[in-house]
Amino acid sequence: MRKIDPATLEIVRGAFIACSNEMGAVLSKTAYNPMVFEVQDFCIAIIDPKGQLIAQNSGGLPIFLADMGATVTDGIEKFGISGFEPGDAIAMNAPYVCGQHLNNVVVYTPCFADGELVAFPAVRAHWLDVGGRRVGFGSVETTEIYEEGLQLRSIKVYRGGKLDENIWQIIADNVRFPESCLGDLAEIGRAFPTVWRRDDKSLHRGDVEPVGETRAPRCIRDSGRRLRSGIVHG
To answer: Per residue in 122-138, pLDDT tens?
Structure first.
């Protein structure tokens, strides 16, 4: 593997952002949920196996993106880095990991290049309902997390591309609008192949494999340098 040069890094960076935007376009056009296709209450992220953000869609909510890495690393801790296979889809809304209310459900999938796990494309979207005391969310009468609704902590809804019918049924039986929630879950699954196709090409362009290894630290360094420069010259 050769050292990545700045030009190639920038090309790959742009490819991942385009990939995130395309996935967002697919989701917003096919979603069952008006919170997604009208309000745009969702975000797309591509996370590396260390939980670092590689790319995000344009317009993704910062509060949605902030803890996406923690969401993925929780799944890695549960299944192990070798516990994923192509076609897996993991659902997550555990509030003590994500720091979000239960309606903000994350679904992510592993992405492989030459058989090696290299990234996790992820979607966070606001579900219309997750059970609980009231329709929707945010009842002022809620006194404990169990009253807010169904909790999903790193649950494999799809395994190797095959739906887990038992998990599907549990979700359907515990939300008020199963057609919307499960419809969105299915549409997210349809959007992921867009990422697999694009990411596979991006990761092989110029033999670039450790994109997150290179890009995240470099972005942090560049941001820090710009910040220090602003402080000095401001």
So the answer is: 999 999 899 988 887 76
- Domain map (residue ranges) of the chain: 6-233
Q: Which of 190, 153, 150 is nearest to 172 (CA)?
A: 150
Residue 146, number of CB atoms within 10 A of its CB: 12
Euclidean distance between CA atoms 60 and 38, whole angstroms: 14
Residue 163: beta bridge partners? 158
- Summarised one tens digit per residue, pLDDT across range 83-115 is 999 889 999 999 999 888 899 999 999 988 778
Helix 6-30 with 211-233: angle, nearest 10 deg: 100
Sequence letter at residue 215: R
Whole-structure pTM value: 0.81
**Rounded Cα gap, residues 221 and 175, in angstroms:** 44
Q: For the chain, give the number of residues.
A: 234
